Amino acid sequence: MSKNSNKINQDDNLILLTSDVNNIDLNYLTKEEVKYASQVIKESKKETVVFDRLGRLVFVQIIKDEKEDYKRMEKCRKAGDILAGKLNDLKAKSVVVVDVDGKGQETLAVVEGMALGSYQFLKYKSDKKEKENSLLSVGTISKVLKDEQIDRMNIITDSVIRCRDLVNEPVSHLSATDLSNVFQKLGEEAGIKVEVLNKNKIEALKMGGLLAVNQGSVDPPTFTIMEWKPEKPVNKKPVILVGKGVVFDTGGLNLKTGNYLDGMKCDMAGAATMASAIYAIARLGLPIHVIGLMPATDNRMDAKSIAPGDVITMHDGSTVEVLNTDAEGRLILADALSYAKKYKPELVFTAATLTGGASRAIGKYGIVAMEKSATKDMGLLKESGNIVYERIAEFPFWDEYGELIKSDVADINNIGGIDAGMITAGKFLAHFTDYPFIHLDIAGPAYIDKKDSYRTAGGTGYGVRLLVEFLEKKINLSLSKTRS
Ligand code: BES
Ligand code: ZN
Ligand code: ZN
After folding, report:
1. C-alpha 6 – ligand 3 centre gap (Å)
2. Residue with CA closest to ligand 1 atom 14
3. Taking Cα atoms as reference points, which of 317, 319, 316 lies closest to residue 341?
């Protein structure tokens, strides 16, 4: 939705971005307007001043200094969201953001906040035409921004939006098969190889975790494999992104009660995040070999559902005592994690709305993460998390937590007791890995009740921007190593 140019029309709506009103070129504002704006800003401590010139809107947006760059960037995104809201309220169709100080990154962040904050999910509204936001195009004028930077931002925001659309889709319109069909379409669009394993294939592969969760469903499970393998990847062994694709989580026989069922259509957010991240990587043409594994099913209550105490045999042959059918995400992810071994991966991520505990621990403000044999990558992930403001809260992953999922009956239990539930869930997953592993529990931020600035209500697409940033950083590190 955004383009860079150096032309401006007399009737364009404008946003003049600067740290100081006095920096604004007098082509944009008259001397009197500059004086007026600086007075308003000083007296009212406002950071936005708007001039309405017979319907042409000129916003002055002050970006104040912050000690840390990443915090300033987040302020810019938030300012972008507010500006987009005002423009939509005023029924503006287009706007040009002027980078007065030559600060490209900040300008990009404002535009990013505008694009993400204007997101709407109107698919099922009969009056969507009336409800649709008016703002359709955002241009930029900057001496420093390159077209590639704008293109990158457009691809990433578009991928986040794809992710949100999927998460917002109710199970009435998104079975596991529907989800894998969307993944296939994303793949076709971006040149990613996609293979969808059907129930027969899943049975042949003895994916006992995925099949057990699917037992209570009238719809078959799917297992989607997306592979982006560019011509000259920087990595010899792939990075694998595994996402939880529970299209609806009733809890199964351990039925969720009351409002715990609310929003459980979001339980495939991990799968949507991973597929959207790969989609972004492919559209950006990043030179890194990445594979996505997305097991999908709903988790329902039925006569055929798994019962607490059932013992199941997983894809890797281990046995699991299912003590709680609501701890289903780890069962389907475990099969994907053991399937991942055949690729001899360099690094594997999981993204999952896995535990209510993760959400209770840190809320919607970040991602609960754990790592096994991936300390360096965890460091890089935390840096990336700050930059995109999808922050990482690393939790301990001590061996002792592994003791908590030992079973008297089978090899392991699928729950670990009342304490540290998000960690025992991670330990359960780690049982199925033999490679460097990072687990992301996105139960807190993936789906929110109310709009939180540019993170709109419903699916947020959390994790997409994080993983793209991380993989780009990893590519740059490896390119700089080969150069030196
Ligand atoms: N999908 C839920 C976790 C969840 C909760 C996601 C809230 C998003 C918002 C998961 O399958 C689940 O039910 N986890 C249980 C595990 C427990 C039975 C060990 C939980 O966290 O309560
Ligand atoms: Zn559950
Ligand atoms: Zn779940």
Report:
1. 49
2. 355
3. 316
